[in-house]
Amino acid sequence: MKIVIINGSARKGNTLTAINAFIKGASEKNEIEIIEPDKLNIAPCRGCGVCQCSKGCVDKDDTNPTIDKIAAADMILFATPVYWWGMSAQLKLVIDKCYCRGLQLKNKKVGTIVVGGSPVDSIQYELIDKQFDCMAKYLSWDMLFNKSYYATARDELEKNKNSMNELEGIGKNL
């Protein structure tokens, strides 16, 4: 299976730690590519609608090559830290630009990993999950998992062996 991971964090902290644990489990049987929005030149969606009449976004930036990778994947993993009770702007930017070819994202297998500095029973995780639930309904996604983790210090998640084993197991069981 071809898996594309969209890393919504610009830091090398807990979100990347979670991604790496997932990859450790998934890499044996799957082809994996990581998209790092903070390293791409992607302009915000203008809502112009021209993309609905053409083969993609009219912006001459990294949008279309990035969306090509996402559309070609069998599974998409969205990983994000919590920024102000929501997903990071880096991740949201890529999601917004997916509008240019949204129908090509139908029926994908999808998972989410959210890492925040508040306990996982906080409303912020629920808000992010609800956004992904709405996208999943609209695009007929098969939501394989929604995982949320609480970690504040940069190495805190890595020290949580139960979480690391869980993430590795999710990847291994795909």
Gist?
The chain has 174 residues and is α/β, with parallel strands linked by helices. The chain is built from 6 helices and 5 strands.
Overview of the molecule:
By secondary structure, this protein is α/β, with parallel strands linked by helices. α3 links the parallel β3 and β4. The chain has one domain: Rossmann fold (3-Layer(aba) Sandwich). Strands 2-1-3-4-5 form a five-stranded parallel β-sheet, sandwiched between helices. It contains six helices and five strands. α1 packs across α6.
Q: How large is the radius of gyration?
A: 16 Å
Q: Summarize the amount of helix as a percent range.
A: 25-40%
Q: Main beta sheet, described?
A: 5 strands, parallel
Integer average pLDDT: 95
Question: Unreliable segments (pLDDT under 50, ≥5 consecutive)?
Answer: none
Q: Structural class per helix/strand content? A: alpha/beta
Number of helices: 6
Distance between the termini: 9 Å
Shape: globular
> What is the CATH superfamily?
Flavodoxin domain
Looking at the overall shape, the CATH architecture is 3-Layer(aba) Sandwich
Secondary-structure blueprint:
Elements: E1 2-7, H1 14-26, E2 31-35, H2 63-72, E3 75-81, H3 89-97, E4 109-116, H4 123-139, E5 142-150, H5 156-159, H6 161-172
Parallel strand pairs: 1-2, 1-3, 3-4, 4-5
Helix pairs in contact: 1-6
